[in-house]
């Protein structure tokens, strides 16, 4: 039985390998790049096509101002996980997905550190967090990937750890260049998925009012890294030292997000209610561990948004 | 092709439909005087409210510049990585000392997290002198200077155009950079087989032809309309010449030029200062403050 499986897998991988070679061979002549790219197997990205607008002759070619119908459609198209829309404001879910998954790139930092990718976690499948991949290559130290690299398209989100947090940006994750230094504290990325311990989805375990206040003032309602007592760091776990204000979120770039409109804040919250709960059992922040339904994805589906309606795709 | 519309007697179905339309009409659904939807208008207003550098609107769509500011300053927080010292030194004395490295690793107390709260929002002031002028050190990678250069950055290997974003990148090229991630400056070399190659070369599977660290795989998910708004805002902000003494390795003063004499915005000739203004969005119009 096991042998059958192994042989089956071997045939599959051999088939995949052949396909890869075939595809590679098919593409090689199309990229008559430099000799160095041939020996490394890495080629320049394909030439970009052209934007769908702004092709006029003005000094500053302008696209039309975007509207929310367009952003909502894009938001549903780029959501990398199934969504549960029951009882939710569909337009807000779409807008929340749009900002969170595009320019906000929240999953760049809030991806799970352990789930998916065979326990390696990270933002993309077989890839990692672009902001904190310490790797030493060719005698130099880089803050970005070598083996795990989101910059070799396609970039497919690691759904198993989407927004589940867990990366340590404090002492456990010093700036790999050694330039930024390290805090003595653990600053662990939060789990943004909805906690269902109250029987309804609470993104990050927060109510809407707390969520708004957090992004407008940086206030940390969970208080997981309070200021250290005079006994100093090391005595209390996760405490931060003055002049840092332990009542506020560290690392998280919330000061920029204080400019979010009320509508967009509510939209982000609505989207975070719609995504699947992912447990963060085992997090050092024992006070904020999520409780998920038995089947966290029971009612989650892919949608498209057309003519004012979300349509189920699966 | 005739487009005559004949009146038909209302059937039960169309009557019900008309009823539904009427019901929708009398529900308290927001009605907009302008063609803009209200959340978009609010974002334009917020964009002009939060930009802490003035903008030159000449030749640009004022509404797009407002949305662009909202994306750059709020939803994207681009200056978090693209500004060497993000927050105002006078208000945040901890920024007096040159902070080094990736802002995502700056441990407390070097964050911007010491300010007060006014009207339910944290107070902070963005540092004008470094705003999206690059120079943040991510190891071997420095964030690039996104400000427009009046001289078209002539030393650059890729031809650039004066007064466009990021030292003179035109809209179509900018769209391409954000969509396939190509580094048009080609600052890195791909190693050969294994890690053989010049010092600092990138081995496979890293792709030296594309931008590292920069999260373009996410930013490219913006609609073309919104990405164009970002480009217009970045073309509208004041030029800042590359900073020479920020965030060098081990505290040294290293120019943000990658040692190649490229990517330097000289900011000459300067744009007349009176073209840069702060604006507000009032009653459907962008007006000077």
Question: What distinguishing features does this structure have?
Answer:
heterodimer, A: 314 residues, mainly alpha, two-stranded antiparallel sheet, disordered N terminus, B: 289 residues, 4 strands, 4% strand
Order of helices and strands of chain A: HHHHHEEEEHHHEE
Please outline the major beta sheet of chain B.
2 strands, antiparallel
Helix share bin of chain A: 25-40%
Shape of chain A: globular
Give a verbal description of the structure.
The complex is a heterodimer of chains A (314) and B (289). With 314 residues, chain A is mainly alpha-helical. Chain A has helices at 2-27, 35-40, 68-78, 90-101, 107-110, 208-217, 254-257, 262-274, and strands at 135-137, 140-142, 194-195, 202-203, 303-306, 309-312. A two-stranded antiparallel sheet of chain A has the order 1-2. In chain A, helix 3 (68-78) crosses helix 4. Chain B has one domain (35-288). In chain B, the strands form 2 sheets. A two-stranded antiparallel ribbon of chain B has the order 1-2. Chain B has a two-stranded antiparallel sheet with strand order 3-4. Chain B has helices at residues 12-26, 38-50, 62-75, 79-82, 165-168, 171-180, 216-219, 224-236, and strands at 117-118, 121-122, 279-282, 285-288. Chain B is built from 8 helices and 4 strands. Residues 1-33 and 244-262 of chain B have low confidence and may be disordered. The chains are: A mainly alpha (314), B mainly alpha (289). Chains A and B meet through helix 2, helix 3, helix 4, helix 5 and strand 2 of A and helix 2, helix 3, strand 2, helix 6 and helix 7 of B.
